Structure formats: C-alpha cells, structure tokens
C-alpha cells in the first residue's frame, strides 16, 4: 500500500489525475473503472481538458463498478452521474462505455476477464467504511459481482431513491482485488477516523474497505484533513 498525502482537495485531485493519465497513455487497450459522486469532481474537471477529442485516449474503455436502477429511467444512477461528470463533457465514444446493470451483472466478471481485466479503478470511501456498493452487513469478502436487495432496515446510510425492495448491483471484493492498480481518493476531516480504521485497523467485514489493505498494488491519495488521524 502506498499512501500519498496532499495539502488539499485540489492537490489530491491533481495527483489522482496524473496517475490515471499515466495509465491511460499506454500504447494498448486500457480498461478503466471510475467512481461517481463528489470526491472525483476535481479529477474529472482536469482530465476533460486533456482527454476531450484527443486521439491519444481512444484506447481507453470505461466500466462502472456498481449501479442503482431508477424506475422509469433508461439508465441507473451511477452511469447517469458518470455521463454528467465525465463521459459527456469529455466526448467519450459510446463504444468505449460498457455499463454494468442489474440485467448483465452476472456476466460482469467473465466480460472483464475476456476484455483483459481492469487496468485501474478509481474509488472513494464511504463514511461507514463501504467501497463501491459493498456495504457493512451485506458484504462478504468472498463475493464476486453480486446483487443486493434493500430491506429498509440497513444500519448504513441509504439514499432516498433506494426504496425498500430495490435491488442494486456491485463488483464485490474478489472482483475488485483482481484490478491491476487500485486507487482510493478521500478528502475531508469527517472521514479521517474511517480512513484510519480501513487503512491501519484489522481487516474486517464491519468496515468492508479494510480488505483493500491486502491489494498488491494499492495507492491511497488523501488530503491532509482525511489523513489527520493516521499513525505516521
């Protein structure tokens, strides 16, 4: 595990951008999985300026690692957010976007293997210790890509759109551990305690992201606030 501590959100985002672009610049097909949400906004803003309409990155193929379906909406929350944050403003070719859905999740691991595996994955950290859609109480460290049904009694935060009975899909710990380079970005003081738990505490399903300590090529990029409780 390599931990990089940057001064602030902007510096953290710049470092993550440079690592991703380094991977994307290789002279071969690159399979990349990236996160939605607020944490990577700065990363994508900088990447768009470089990637948009550039012939140098047509080799990059994108895969979402989880998905929450929405009734009467053609695509789920994750891919919709990724389109808004990055795919559309970067003018990514539709042929290079490979959505994970509740319909095709059972084929996800085989599909990735046939495509050469994921070269890199950019993920965030939930305040409850989850990563991707691997939530406390629903995650087994033995899971490949799997489906989770919301019971309505989860002890973890459930967004408003995730009504009781809704099913979402996510790449499980086994699937994520197969990624060649795993990159975790976290910012802000409110996640400092969880950063310490998952990076320096025991590996436990209570904090699913703690299993990432075992990944052979794991880069963690933090701002100073998120790193403030780590034992240096």
TrEMBL record:
<dbReference type="InterPro" id="IPR052960">
    <property type="entry name" value="GlcN6P_deaminase-like"/>
</dbReference>
<dbReference type="InterPro" id="IPR037171">
    <property type="entry name" value="NagB/RpiA_transferase-like"/>
</dbReference>
<dbReference type="GO" id="GO:0004342">
    <property type="term" value="F:glucosamine-6-phosphate deaminase activity"/>
</dbReference>
<dbReference type="GO" id="GO:0005975">
    <property type="term" value="P:carbohydrate metabolic process"/>
</dbReference>
<keyword id="KW-0119">Carbohydrate metabolism</keyword>
<dbReference type="GO" id="GO:0006044">
    <property type="term" value="P:N-acetylglucosamine metabolic process"/>
</dbReference>
<protein>
    <submittedName>
        <fullName>6-phosphogluconolactonase</fullName>
    </submittedName>
</protein>
<dbReference type="Pfam" id="PF01182">
    <property type="entry name" value="Glucosamine_iso"/>
</dbReference>
<feature type="domain" description="Glucosamine/galactosamine-6-phosphate isomerase">
    <location>
        <begin position="11"/>
        <end position="213"/>
    </location>
</feature>
<dbReference type="InterPro" id="IPR006148">
    <property type="entry name" value="Glc/Gal-6P_isomerase"/>
</dbReference>
<dbReference type="InterPro" id="IPR004547">
    <property type="entry name" value="Glucosamine6P_isomerase"/>
</dbReference>
